[in-house]
Write a structure and sequence with these properties.
By secondary structure, the protein is an alpha+beta fold. The chain has 7 helices and 5 strands. The strands form 2 sheets. A 3-stranded antiparallel beta sheet has the order 1-3-4. A two-stranded parallel ribbon has the order 2-5.
């Protein structure tokens, strides 16, 4: 086994995540209704902490959760640390956001999230073609 693989498996600093199926469903609905951005710089488009706080002032935690493909195992519900792998700007799906989710999930071997992001990218590409 490669050294890096054992390091990931034995590293308690690497969080574990559960796929948020409600977020996948929301992303699909947004794509179907053409609420997406095909070309963006994810570093500029991803929501900031201030954007998230403003969103939470007028939306529920359940709605906030639906913008995140991952649920952090062991984190308390209704805390920002519970939600990971944001894929949109809290209004629309961003292709670059899905790519970022896929890449980061692949990098840290979160396979369910990686595959969900990949499928959403394929669905977005098919829908927007």
């Amino acid at each position: 086994m490669p050294r890096w693989s054992a390091r990931l498996r034995n590293n308690p600093a690497v969080a574990s995540y559960t796929l948020n199926k409600k977020a996948v469903a929301r992303a699909r609905r947004l794509i179907e209704s053409r609420q997406y951005v095909l070309t963006s710089d994810w570093g500029d488009a991803q929501p900031s902490a201030e954007d998230e706080n403003a969103y939470l002032e007028s939306h529920s935690w359940d709605e906030f959760a639906e913008w995140h493909l991952g649920l952090t195992d062991g984190a308390t519900d209704e805390t920002k640390s519970r939600y990971a792998f944001v894929y949109g700007d809290l209004r629309r799906v961003h292709r670059s956001g899905l790519l970022a989710c896929q890449y980061r999930a692949a990098e840290w071997r979160h396979k369910q999230i990686e595959l969900a992001a990949h499928k959403l990218i394929q669905f977005l590409d098919d829908t927007s073609a």
